[in-house]
Amino acid sequence: MRIAIGSDHRGHHVKAKLLQLLQQLGHEVTVAGDDNPSIDYPDVAFAVGRSVSNGDVDRGILICGTGIGMAIAANKFKGVRAAAVYDEVLAEMSRRHNNANVLCLSGDLLGERNLDRLIDIWLTTEFEGGRHERRVGKITDAEDAC
């Protein structure tokens, strides 16, 4: 899978760990942004969101202090469904019901716990489709109307 990953300064340590994990799993990973001590999260989220929206990558992973700012910024791009995820249930449901294609994580709140498991669940859970396809379709229709 082609994955873009990026973080602001508060998520750098998580990004480094996930970059290594994703490469070990055989994914093609591109890094957005740099490790500037004070990088603005919207700049990184826009780079990853644009890559997902354009189809340059299949999915994106973003890390900031809470994951919330990254999700808000990445969701500005057509076709991006970014979800702030804090546990295994949210990782699964963001994929199964919402077909999330950008995972937003907290660099401050998650620590080292369960990161490998969260990534595994998010990358391997398939979109359920069915009634959820109709709902996600409504989001796409709203994007087209704007």
What is the topological layout?
Blueprint (H helix, E strand, L loop, with lengths): L1 E6 L4 H13 L3 E5 L8 H14 L4 E6 L3 H7 L7 E3 L3 H9 L5 E5 L8 H10 L6 H15 L1
Parallel strand pairs: 1-2, 1-3, 3-5, 4-5
Question: Would you kindly provide a written description of the structure presented here, covering whatever features stand out?
Answer:
The chain is an alpha/beta fold and 146 residues long. The protein has a single domain (2-145), classed as Sugar-phosphate isomerase, RpiB/LacA/LacB (Ribose 5-phosphate Isomerase B, Chain: A, 3-Layer(aba) Sandwich), CATH 3.40.1400.10. Helices cover 47% and strands 17% of the residues. It has six helices and five strands, in the order βαβαβαβαβαα. It has helices at 12-24, 41-54, 68-74, 88-96, 115-124, 131-145; strands at residues 2-7, 28-32, 59-64, 82-84, 102-106. It has a five-stranded parallel β-sheet with strand order 2-1-3-5-4, with helices on both faces. The radius of gyration is 14 Å and the shape is globular. The chain starts with a strand and ends with a helix. The mean pLDDT is 93.
Specify the structural class. Answer: alpha/beta
Write the H/E string, N to C.
EHEHEHEHEHH
Enumerate the spans where pLDDT stays under 50 for 5 or more consecutive residues: none
Output the strand order for the largest sheet.
2-1-3-5-4
